[in-house]
């Protein structure tokens, strides 16, 4: 059971942090803003900034 804990959620979070660079977060945010109503743009930007902060 201890072996499962080593590669479980912690390993997944580490892989996500490696994959989600600030540039990729910005790219995703721009794609979301391109299809979402303008009224949510500020919220998307705020979420992207929080994602970048969490990724550090």
Structure description:
It contains 4 helices and no strands. The model has no long low-confidence stretch (mean pLDDT 85). It is mainly alpha-helical and 56 residues long. Helix 3 packs antiparallel against helix 4. The longest helix has 14 residues, at 22-35.
DSSP summary, beta strand count: 0
Provide a count of the helices.
Answer: 4
Q: Strand count, sense and closure of the main sheet?
A: none
Low-confidence segments = none
What Rg do the Cα atoms give? 15 Å
* Silhouette: elongated
Q: In sequence order, what are the helices and strands, one letter per element?
A: HHHH
Distance between the termini: 30 Å
Estimate what percentage of residues fall within beta strands: under 5%
Look at the helices and sheets and give the structural class.
Answer: mainly alpha
Mean pLDDT over all positions = 85
Tally of separate domains: 1
Helix fraction bin: over 70%
Protein topology:
Blueprint: H1 2-7, H2 9-19, H3 22-35, H4 41-54
Short key terms for the protein model shown above:
single chain; 56 residues; mainly alpha; 0% strand; elongated
A few lines on this structure:
By secondary structure, the chain is mainly α.
């Amino acid at each position: 059971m201890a072996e499962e804990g080593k590669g479980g959620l912690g390993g997944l979070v580490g892989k996500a942090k490696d994959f989600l660079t600030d540039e990729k977060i910005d790219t995703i945010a721009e794609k979301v803003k391109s299809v979402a109503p303008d009224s949510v743009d500020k919220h998307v930007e705020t979420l992207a900034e929080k994602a970048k902060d969490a990724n550090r």
